[in-house]
Amino acid sequence: MLICEQMPGCSTTRRARPILPTTHWQTNQMNTSRPLLACCSLSAILIGGGAPAALAQSLPGGCYAGPFPHSNAAAIHCIQASGISVAGDIANEATGAVTPGSPLGVGILVRNAAVSGSVANAGVIAAPTGVSLVNARVAGSLSSSGTISGGVGLRLAGATVDGGVVSSGTVNATSAGILIDAGSAIRTDQPGVLVSGPTLLGGISNAGTISARQWGVVAAYASTFSGGVKNSGAITATMDTVNGYPAVGVAAFNSGAVSGGLSNAKTGVIAVTAAVTASGISVWNVSSFSGGMSNAGVISVTEINAGGRIAGAAGLDVGSYNTGSGALGGSLFTGGIANSGWIDVVVFNSGVITGGAAGGLSLHGVSTFTGGVVNSRDGVVIVDFTNDVGGTSVGAAGLGVRGTRATALSTNTARFEGGVLNAGTIGVNVVNRGTVAFGLAGVAVKNFVSSSGGVSNEAGGRIAVEVANTGAGGNIYGVGVGGPVTGSSAISIETYAGGVSNAGVIAVTASNAGTVNNVAGVSVSNVSRFDGGLTNSGGISVAVSGPGAYSGDVAGLRLAGVANWSGAVVNSGAISAPVGIDIGANVGFAAGSSIVNTGTIIGSVAAIDASAATSPVTISQAGGLLSGAVKLSAHADTLTVSGGTLAGDIVGQGAADTVNFAPGPGRTFTYGAPYGFSGVNQVNVASGTLTLNGANSATNVTVAPGAKLEVGDAAKASARLTSAGVDVFGVLAGHGAVSGPVKLESGATLAPGGSVGALTVNGDVAFASGATYAIALSPTAASKTQVNGAAILGGATVSVTPGVLLGAHAAQTFTILTATAGLRDTFNPAVSVTQSGLMAAPNLGYDAKNVFLNIPAYIRWLDLAPAAPRNAISAANALNGYFLTGATPPAPIQGLGALSGAALNAAVNQVAGQQQGAAEPLAIKAGDLFLSLMLDPHADGRGAAAGSAMPSAEAPIRDGAAFQSIAPTANSPVFWAGGYGGGASYAGDAASGAARNVGSIYGYAAGADYRVEPNAVVGVAIGGGGTAFGLGQGRGGGSAQMVQAGVYGALHSGPAYVTGGLAFTAFDFATNRSLAGVGTQRGAFKAGMVSNRLEAGYAFPVYAALSVTPYAANQIQGLFLPGFGESFGADAAFSLNYGGRDAYDDRVELGARFDLLQPAFSSGLKIYGRLAWAHNFYNLGLSSVSFASFSAPSFLVCSAAPARDSALVTAGAEYSVGDGWTVSAKFEGEFARTANFYGATGQIRKAW
């Protein structure tokens, strides 16, 4: 035999020396003065390095190395089988003690070996690694019934074990009790890994492959198990016969304290197939459990129960297979249950399933559970459950949370903390041809004394339950809290906190040809106290079909048997079900708890059904849609409608229910046919306007001060309101009928019709002296009340509102009230007239049963609201002047009569067209830009900076060769071409009504200069272009095409210069004027404009090449506008004629120009600018307008105009490129508080 020894001074070179033969046990006689395997690392031993075992019978340090098979009963350092085949077992017997010294660190090492038997420890091993199988194959099992202490208890590294791994003794490991790496495999018809001893510390970690019968990795009958079970490999467990125990992938059961949790990592796969109770990961019958349970990988469970009696199947399970009174009973589970992977549970049952039923994540029979149940955003839980003919099952759930099963919950302390949260996908698919005792649900929480944390289906979460039932289907819920319980207790949860919320999707679909109890998206029942309310901001849908029977409710949200309910039931999402929200018996709402809808509830039977409630229910319809009936109980329910849409009947039950309509001031709620309220004691119209267009009945109706009740609008004269008494403090109006007495209190108003029309009262009408009877007039009719009873007029005041038709109206007499049982008293003789119109005081007449209103001739005119703009006042005065002649305007103008207040002001202001005036400032600006292009003093030859007469400070620069081409000689021509463009904005004015005007201008021109003298230039130019403008507030705009021509001249003497120009512009305008609800009016006209400008300045040298030229200028432009009419458009009634006028702008400028010569460039560069103040004298923006189709007086209209004072800014450059060619560009800006212009000009010149 050879032993490896380190050479002196060398850490890597080895030499072999012979060892004298010894017996197996001559350890003490070996020479230990040399370092044993000093050059052979522990890792080399573990993976096959070091001394060949075939050459030795023992190793230094007391390691047994053969022959094998071998059973050790003594105290040694280690047992090592390396590179051999063992025909039998390798064992450490009960009397054996293995305590290896450093650096080997392994009690029993089987490396690169094949063992036909087992590897077992029944004694004591104290080592960093107790038993290690490295690249080995064991045909039997790896087991320990003794004691192992150290870092790792049992280790598989690239090993295969055919008989499973069993720990029935004690493992005190600081790192891992059982460690299986990714290269290892356990393939056995026994349990894969079984811990059945009293203690295992360090847990179990599997990254390899385990294929086992019934149990993959199991900790059972252990007093203490810590470190948990972690799987990142593949575990397969199968069981095809029934033996009374469940088949599990990973489990801890029948044990004391279990800590460290059970988990399946993202790379982990657990697959269980069985004919018995089955789970992917499970815990049951343990005294306490900590560390939680989680899955981030894949768990697949398939269970086929062919006639047996089993406890169900689950992906992640706690307590479903408990036995005895405690069964996790009396225990504590901490750390919660979490899934972020995939769980698929498939169950086929034709036998009996009790207890756990079928579930993705199942909790059952736990006395105290903390940490909650979470299915995260990436989590998917799918349960496919087939309950065949003859099959009986408790039920099925995606996430099932149930406490200790007991006949009387009040005698135990089952507690659930942390709630249930789903952000992923839960799908439960059920085919039931047998019997389901309790229920089928996406999420179920039940059977606890206390539950906290609530249930939440977050945004993005989806819970789908699909059931095809031909048997007895029990209850079907998307989310179920409480519900039926085993035994005699009717209470499933005594105290529940945290509420239920849904921001995702809950979808329940049931095809029923058998019998089903209740079906609901969310159900809360059999709960003694419920805190936290129920909210839905997502979608809940419940759809049922088939000929089967339902013994309970079919609803989106269902509440029943909740003695103390605290918190609102709020829907801001969408609910669709036969009954949207169902309130059953024995639900007691705490003060402030109510049902609130601002979303959509669609119920084919009822939107909200509280008819079976046994205590008062408060409902608020604050917005959104209620489609379906609202059914109230007989226990003083209150329904308040303040917004949204109600498309269903309100059905009360007698003398206690109250319905409040409160849309709010200025708002109208229409309760339309064919819907109405009935069986209601009190209806209150609290605020705003309520329009009833269907058939309605209530014992008492009250209209509050400031509120209005309209019984039938103009299109619904069939509307009916039946009441024992209508008490009005606000306004009662309408075109329908009121059956019952009507009382008008002081301050109240009866307004039959509301517009011109008739209201019928089948009963007496009584006016208080402070009440008002409001009559609306048209040219041919007046509103009226038909009282089929007596009318007590009480001295109330009659108020008359003239009709909306504008113009003159003849005197008439109308019957405004008829009482079949006669009149009592009279109205106040002084009749009040509202709105506008010249009307002599109307008067009243009477006979025994009728009241007559005598109307003298009157004129109905436009009465603008305060603060109307001047344009609107001007147009209204013109129209009113037309009405005063006794004329009636065209029908389209009559539409103005239906408006009032700010709406009337705005409409009349639109009628007053501003198109002519809005075209003027853009035209003036076009002339300004053309003059600027012709007369720019910075262009060579037009200002003081040119020629030889420059100031002396600048002369040296002018003498440079760079500028020789800039100054042409006398009698030489200069040809040029240029263009300009820009945008202008003129602020509107609220006081006048002028709209904001935003326009654009573009132009191009060409011309020629001729230097008649060295200091004198004359020229001519011609050009063209266009303008466009648009008015704010959608009032249209216009455009123009133009042709321009001009002459100009410049004279300079030394530093002084004078320039002048005269131009003419011909415009071809087109306008469009937009009227809301009418269309567009169009017009066209031609106009001419004359423009002239005179400017003088004097240049001062400042520094080297910089000169400053103060200047003054006067620019006068006259625009000659012809009269024109809008000859075509949407409606001739609104067409306008614009009077011809001469508009002018006289502008004075004072400022300075700046020139900077830069001779460094080869042909010369000049940079120049301008800063100036301008003041405008003008008459722009004022037009004389008249209506084209009728002879109303003309009126003046203001439009946005330029600012009187503004700042002028110019920045430009001129560059001579040689041979007489010059290019230039400049920016032009005009800035003021109410107007701004931005523009640019470019020019190219050639001097000959």
UniProtKB/TrEMBL annotation:
Residues 968-1248 form the Autotransporter domain. Pfam families: Autotransporter. This is Autotransporter domain-containing protein. It comes from Rhodoblastus acidophilus (Rhodopseudomonas acidophila). The lineage of its organism: Bacteria, Pseudomonadati, Pseudomonadota, Alphaproteobacteria, Hyphomicrobiales.
